[in-house]
Write a structure and sequence with these properties.
Blueprint (H helix, E strand, L loop, with lengths): L15 E7 L4 E9 L4 E10 L6 H19 L3 E5 L7 H20 L4 E4 L1 H8 L7 H12 L7 H33 L19 E3 L6 E3 L12 H9 L1
Helix pairs in contact: 1-2, 3-5, 4-5
Length: 238
């Protein structure tokens, strides 16, 4: 297991440790990073390995016990777990789901907030391309965390999951601060005074001579089209 540790950076904001998990029933990758005020740094990474000849319940128990020791040693504040990719091999997918469930059970038992991300989301966050291969993920993890050596594939995937959550959390925090700032600048339209140009339409209406109909005050009554105005027009012409 390759481990790099540094002294925490002084900051007014509390640092947070993120545990990333790449589920697997035979090999489960894990990685721990720490988010300080403006930087992210590598803490540790490794793999939990079982053997194929072991019964599945024994493998799950071994995974759970190893993960408990990792959580106790590195004291993460939250965890990020890669979601299960459903392949054509249903049996392998079920075993992967069992291993993932065992890991989530341990994390939940430690009262850690658990965040889940698909493989495509993780690759987009770290590499910038949702279909990046394993070697591209390894290279970007090594570059982003400034590691001396390239981590193993499963451990690199786990560190990538942790980096994905770190980026998502920072983006959501930045958006939240921006929305709060906009809310403080927004005027209170509920206290706006009514416009002086708008008047009640009933103020300019008066009963018409024909009954219940309403017409504007001072307006002439509507002429019926029965023909009285026609003789008057003819007299005026003569």
């Amino acid at each position: 297991m390759h481990t790099i540790s540094e002294q925490p950076t002084a900051s007014s904001e509390p640092s947070q440790r993120i545990l990333g998990i790449d589920p697997g029933s035979l090999v489960m990758g894990w990685g721990v990073i720490q988010q300080d005020a403006t930087t992210v740094r590598h803490i540790a990474h490794g793999t939990i390995r079982t053997t194929a000849d072991m019964p599945l319940p024994h493998r799950l128990d071994q995974i759970a016990r190893a993960l408990q020791r990792i959580v106790k040693l590195h004291q993460p504040d939250m965890a990020a777990v890669e979601d299960v990719f459903v392949s054509r091999n249903v049996k392998s997918a079920l075993k992967l789901g069992h291993a993932r469930g065992a890991a989530i059970t341990v994390l939940a038992g430690q009262t850690l907030p658990i965040h889940e991300y698909t493989a495509v989301t993780v690759k987009k966050s770290v590499v910038g391309y949702g279909r990046a291969d394993k070697h591209q993920v390894q290279h970007m993890v090594k570059t982003l965390l400034e590691l001396e050596k390239t981590p193993p594939q499963d451990a690199a995937d786990a560190l990538a999951v942790a980096l994905c959550h770190q980026q998502q959390a920072r983006w959501q925090s930045a958006v939240g601060v921006h929305v709060q700032a906009l809310g403080k600048k927004r005027p209170n339209h509920s206290q706006r005074e009514p416009s002086p140009h708008i008047q009640d339409s009933t103020d300019s209406l008066s009963p018409s001579s024909t009954g219940n109909a309403m017409r504007p005050a001072g307006a002439l009554p509507a002429q019926s089209g029965t023909g009285r105005s026609r003789p008057m027009l003819k007299r005026a012409i003569r």
